[in-house]
Amino acid sequence: MPPPARRGKLAYKILFWFLLISLAPMGVVGYHLVGISQASLRKETLAMQESLAVGFADTVYKYVTTFRNVLAETAGIDEFASMNSVKQQQYLNRIMQVHLAVLELSVSNVQGSEQMRTGRFLGPAPEMRSFEGEEFFIETMRRGQYIGKLERFQGLYPTATIAVAVVDQKAQPAKAMGVLMARVSLNGLSSMLGMEFPATGKSAAAVVDKRDGFLIAHSSPKEVFKPDARISDEVLKIITTQTAPKGGGEMALADGRRLLGAYADVRDLDWVVYVQQPVEYAYQTAAEMRNQIFRVLVWVVLFTILLSLAVAGHITQPIRLLREAAARLGRGQFEDLPEMMTTNDEIGDLAQTFLAMSESLKEKTGELIHAKQELEKFTKFLEKRVEARTRELKSAQDELIKKERLAAIGQMASVVGHEIRNPLAVINNSIYFIKTKLGTASAGTDPKIDKHIRIIESEIKQANGIINEILTYSRTRELKPERVFLSAWLDELLSVYPFPPHIVLDKQFDPINPLVDIDTTEIQQAIRNLMNNGIEVMPQNGTVSVHTRVADDRKSVAILIGDTGPGIPADVLDKIFAPFFTTKARGTGLGLAVVRKVLDRHNGSVEVESVVGRGTVFKLTVPVAQPGTPPPSGAPAGAAGPQHMA
Amino acid sequence: MVKLLIIDDDAHLRESLAEVLELEGFECSQAGAAHSGIEAAKKVDPDVVIMDIQLPDSSGFQICQTLRKRSRQTILIMMTGRFLSSEEKKQGFELGADEYITKPFDLAELSIRIKQLLSRRTPG
Known about the structure:
The structure holds 2 protein chains of 2 kinds. Chain A has 16 helices and 17 strands. By secondary structure, chain A is α+β, with helices and mostly antiparallel strands.
């Protein structure tokens, strides 16, 4: 399973740097622009707020001065200035009719005693008052007019007292005749504020007396029509301590609210118009703009990211293809490389170079694989050669060891022949001498001497026999094969073999009487050795069997020599053909070794089967002479065959 | 009397053989080596020489050759303690040997054989 592909790492890198490079300056500039626009927007909002305050201050002024002008006009009329009470009453009634805000009108003389009084809520004969010590009277008398004395009519409606001096213009010089005073309801101001700043809105406006904080008008009627109507002390404190005729700014209230406030003094009066808006509301536009900018920015970022991804993907796709192709190459898959666009740029060059490299690699790998296969073949060949050679060497070594052993035995035998035959010859000579002497001297010597002489002679013969056996085994005699009919030849051999009387011969020859090329001396020696052994192990009685059996392919014939002796134990069976191995009290252990040697020399084989208690069978196999092959040099077949047959 | 020379490095063998053959009526001289054997042959001029094939100073075949060159009449019998290959035997016969005997030998047989060989010898 391939490791999970780390996809688009390069793409992300490109994206990151692209974003950083492209968006960061834009972000910084945007941030500053937003800041600037926010500041200017706020400034603008504040200025608007201020201008509202100023405008309203003007309106308030005009409102109040309208009444003053009405009074001044009326007071300036000759008929009024003449203090004609009837005429005055007519004028007052007209004012009351026209100006609903006027609640009460009063005329007093220069001493301050009220001459005439009319009002909307007065009885038919209202009480006349003296204004001699009143502020408005003194002010009016001194300066000609007065606006002030804010009160709540019936504890609810704010009212102001407006007064003008009644002056007789005809007199030289003009002569003050009295004071025309009106008590004017200021509800109209609240109504105007209410229209300008509806109660449902977030903004509010108020007109306040700077000296005592009397709430003259408010955009919300609820705020103003109550006996103790005031605006909050926090705001009041701020606006009453300002020295500039107008101004504004943000305020943070104790309850956490942030307000944008503006004020403007009302001309010629100690009144101030105050306008406020919650900051968030005041700056709503700014906030909206900011949000809009942020939205745009988000879109821009998203778009940029998508664009970058696309661009990065487009740029890195051929690289990814290259990587995939390289991975395939790495796994040794030269076929099915992904299709690579050969664009006219560095990546295209890279792809071209890569393709060239892969071709070269494919070629080289092919060569390598071929070389490896060749090498493997060669190695196998070499291994086989080495194996064969080793086998040859091993068999040669075995052969050599065998030959060396035989050579050693031959050398030993030669030494034995020389060194023992000499003393044997001497003993033989001496005993012959003694025997001859005794024989000629006297015929009647001790018969035991004769017996011992015979024993010595017999032992000499036996010793000589042993020596002969060893020498026979060890000598390198040239093989002299003859072509004979096997059955006939065996018949003759058996006919001259001295079987003891207690031994029965069981002779069974194959109906086919095959021709064999054998060295008769040696094969005879082998068969004799086997029969000697068989007879030796059957001292009481027994059967020696001699059978022949031609193989089915007629290429070989087996001569089976068996006995009914005690048999050979299995643990001994595989050693019996080894030279000098013997179980007899007296024996060279060469009899069977000679048998095997002889059969080996005839390209035959010898096998043994034995059942303890029942007997042993030796199977000598020799090749059958093939018709068409010339008979071996030696006695011609014709000479031996028919003769034996007969 | 028939003169016999026995050449063998084994003194016991020489002596026992000589004494047995003396019983048979031969006149025996002895030598222990090839060199002394040839000397003895020159001195005695034997009718029969029985010599070992292996001698300390020389091969029996060389004595055989020397003695045959010296006389065609002398009967030369080679003694051996080992099997001789047919090549060796042929070589011996070519060099003039008359007979081979293998130790230990049947003395009666040897005696008869010597007498027979002597009887066939062409006089001169």
